[in-house]
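Hi support team,

I'm opening this ticket because the web form for multi-chain structure prediction keeps timing out on my end. I have pasted the exact lines I submitted so you can reproduce it. The total is 818 residues across two entries, so I didn't expect it to be a heavy job. Is there a limit I'm missing, or should I split the entries? Thanks in advance, R.K.
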Amino acid sequence: MSARKKVVVPLNRVEGDLKVHLEYDGNKIYDAFSAGTMYRGFENIMKERGPLDGLVITPRICGICTTSHLYAAAKALDMISQAVVPDNATRVRNITLIAEQLQNDVRHHTMQFMVDATNPVYENAPFYEEAIERYTPIRGSSIVSAIQSTKRVLEIVSILGGQWPHSSFMVPGGVVSVPGANDIMQCKYVLRRFKSWYEKQILGCTCEEWNQVQSARDLEDWLESSPSRYSSDLGFYLRFGREAGLDRLGKGTENFISYGFLDMPRKTGVKSLGSTGYYFPAGFVSSGMVRQVNQHEIKEDISHSWFTNDETELHPYEGVTIPYATGSEGRRYSWAKAPRYDGHPAETGPLAQMMALQHPLFTDMVNQSAPSVFSRQLARIVRPALTISVMDQWLDEIAETDEPFFTPYNDIKNGQGHGMVEAPRGSLGHWVIIEDGRIKRYQVISPTTWNASPRDANGQLGPWERALAGTAIKNPNAPIEVDHIVRSFDPCLVCTVHCADLRWEV
Amino acid sequence: MSLNLFWLQCGGCGGDTWSLFNASSPNVVDFLEAQDINVLWHPSLSVQSHEEHRETIRRVTEGRERLDVLCVEGSVIRGPGGTGMYDDFDGSPKKDLVYALAAQAKHIVAVGTCASFGGIGADGEIEATGLQFHKHEPGGFLGEDFVSGGGRPVINIPGCPCHCDVIIGTLSAIAQGTPPELGDYNMPLEWFGVMVHQGCTRNEYHEYRVEEKRMGEKGCLFFYLGCHGPLVHGVCNKLLWNGRSSKTRVGVPCFGCTRPDFPQLYPFFETRNIEGIPLELPEGMDRAHYMAYKGMAAAAAPARLKKRKTRI
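Hello R.K., no limit was hit. The queue was backed up. Here is the completed structure from your submission:
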């Protein structure tokens, strides 16, 4: 039995500050504890504020998924005020949400995930020279190209919503803007330019061609079928991923949750990929079975978190956030709460969306070799191939109709409501209670809170703790595997509203 | 000689970083190259290992590496109870790192409202504060008398987020050796000498007091919907966002995000008023004149505005 060793691995190039505490047993990670290092106390900032203040404050939780928080906040208020959201407002909300997701997926892949391919541990790998050329920070060809294209696609949010990041154009009952025919045309031009860039730079083929890839076997054939595919960012990812063994890393909990991505307008030519009221269906996936998501089944456990409360497991409508900084103690080690669905930890994000959808390619990959860094990151970088076309269709539908973008809503005095959306990183929920025209309680469960969750009262590890535990490390002094695993979840620690860190290494 | 820049994220959301990446002319890559800026650290750009990062910090704080510009994004978090441990770096409060770097920096830029004035969390349990102001009060984290190595106070470029052109413009001026002239709250006059109201496409509606009580209309949002456009300084309607538009143009009230008291403690989306006239009047205006002017303006409003026929 080799000596157990405790190390702390801090990670940058994630949104916010993150540290992972690992226990090594020889070259194997024996145990993992994930802890963010900042607590910003948003839920308590919201108390006693005006009923619409969530629309202004919560986007500021996160500078990269600001529109997603706005969407969740607006949906919670829709519910409380029993607002009727016109189809055109749903379209505008969705179009801006997709634009945000497009920039996030591309930025995360090129500026955060793939930069690890340039790590010196790979200097003898066949892909290394190409990795340096593509992904050297600030200078790499893929990075420069991604910076250019992602800022352009965000113009869509600005045309429809005033600015990105941090606007508040979604309100209960719809959106405040009334885009004219030329605004919609401009959005179409911006999207068209992004699509052609994405197809050339990222995919190396058209979205339609990519969407023909339906199995792990198809994926093999796809890569070798043309030089443009082989040399695209996706082509490079497949080659790098194979070489680096990403398909053998980071299995996780094998449970997935998705709240349903993109509310379907009541009347639309867009065909839902599932059977619920969303373009991407909602679902909780466990042991390969997809179940409907019921928000009553969501609880947050604080048995290992630095919060004080008599109950350790509460639904977010009952949730309280009382920081309790006790320093080193035996059990509590994180400010992240531990969300559980029907008692289970669950991974959320693009791969979870694909699993809830039972996408043939990803279902096949997961069935063959379990979830992994490889399939998780692949789901993210190819997700735009499924969303660009619906965005375009909804733009056309806005142009073709003369319907309103807003219907007046009832005064918001008392009530409770929740807004559940799919942010770029996965399932995001806001649970709001308003009394006497003031916010009484505001609880946010962000995607990274699911993914970065600590243990719960039953000792179940959170998704990326589980993905790390048991991993064999080639070089304990440079555990690049940890970077790949954690980054494949696209961590957003600024969103993980309750976050701080416990120093416990000996 | 290249310019060494260190970008520190504290109690923030990363929004100023992503705003910076919106820049078009120049974009962030061209800007760094044009001004020969050597990024010692930026959390979204740097590829250094943690050990290399720590070594960079040691070199800077021990005076072995020049620090020409320190950009701070996010508030300085002092909670709980002044310990700063709600935001730690390597087991020590990050505020200590802010102090150590600030002591070595030739120029310091507070990027965004949180770093400038405390912003989100300035009233809360995390005890957030700005670098040299706490809301309207001089002082903040570094203290009123603090000057950087270049002999200047912290340059505040507020906004939630700060506009990309303001970030790039401020850093360009510093790189050229001509730091921007500062006005109130040590904000550069170049960008904060203009009101958000100036350039708003709803101006004509405002002039004739064609004011909206509900959202989703074309008129002015100042009287009833809580717009701060005529009250606060900012470039939103001069430089526009993402090269395209602004909140007020599309019908979102300005929330006054460049103001030292953002986010205000009273509700958004509504205007506090006295007998139907806003409590806060455009800067420099007295109530009696304002009431007389608005009464006449409303009476004179052309039908095309009253009927919302004028496109915005």
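A quick check on our side: Residues 497-506 of chain A have pLDDT under 50 and may be disordered. Let us know if the file doesn't open in your viewer.
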